[in-house]
Amino acid sequence: MPRTSDHPDSATPSQAAPVVELRQLRKSFGDLEVLKGIDLAVRPGEHVVLFGPSGSGKSTVLRSINLLEPPTSGSLRFDGVEYGPGIPGEPQAAERGRPIDLRRNIGMVFQQFNLFPHLTALENVALPLRSVRGCKRPQAEHQAAEALRRVGLLERAAHYPRQLSGGQQQRVAIARALALDPQVMLFDEPTSALDPELVGGVLATMRELAETGMTMLIVTHELGFAREIGDLNVFMEDGQVVETGDREIYAGPTNPRTSAFLSAVL
Ligand code: ADP
Ligand code: MG
């Protein structure tokens, strides 16, 4: 996929084969086309930020990547395997991957953290290890504790969601995704539901995760954070990628639509 600027840090694997690659991805709901041919590549270890106005299709992009919304047409490759219906006029892929194999390699964190209120932090993180991965309880709890340690909440393992702040609950949700050892983590406005004083803790956890080399695709309105973390920054509007760039995009966008959006929000 074309890049409008070189990667700022030559040590990062910007030339490696993409782990997620969308080409000409389209999605319609009835007569409404909400993704109008998205091209996007996420390479191993890269931190990609998607930003743009409400309704531009950012969540639909994330939901398409793990097939929560099956694309109408286009190519969706994960780790080189085709999961999309294909690009009109191009030869069909010989084989299509199974959604279950795609999803097991993708962790997703939403605005609403959706923890079970009657389970402790540890049990919330251990549950998918048992139900999705088939781990036995001791193994699941061991891995869940390790994931809680990574988000700095091991000492809260026995707390119930109501005993945790919203920011801590979101970090438990991050641990729940991390515990499944995904290749890529998708974040859809992970701090939008939080009181302002709780945003920083969640962003700090995400920053630490980024520093471990986790591949991340993040939808966020926290553009200060985006500027700090985004190796590739993608501005979307009206179901299309308008502009992509490195961190300079926030200070000096080249497209007037990106400029208009940034000057309205910054
Ligand atoms: P964003 O995350 O950028 O705010 P979305 O991806 O949520 O945008 O939505 C893009 C467009 O798709 C919006 O017009 C929204 O109303 C529409 N849309 C999203 N999901 C559905 C759905 N399940 N059915 C119909 N329209 C939808
Ligand atoms: Mg959204």
From TrEMBL:
GO terms for cellular component: plasma membrane. GO terms for molecular function: ABC-type amino acid transporter activity; ATP binding; ATP hydrolysis activity. SUPFAM superfamilies: P-loop containing nucleoside triphosphate hydrolases (SSF52540). It is found in: Cell membrane. Residues 20-262 form the ABC transporter domain. It is a peripheral membrane protein. Its main location: membrane. Signal peptide: none annotated. Keywords: Amino-acid transport, ATP-binding, Cell membrane, Membrane, Nucleotide-binding, Transport. CDD domains: ABC_HisP_GlnQ (cd03262). SMART domains: AAA. Belongs to the ABC transporter superfamily. This is ATP-binding protein. It comes from Patulibacter medicamentivorans.
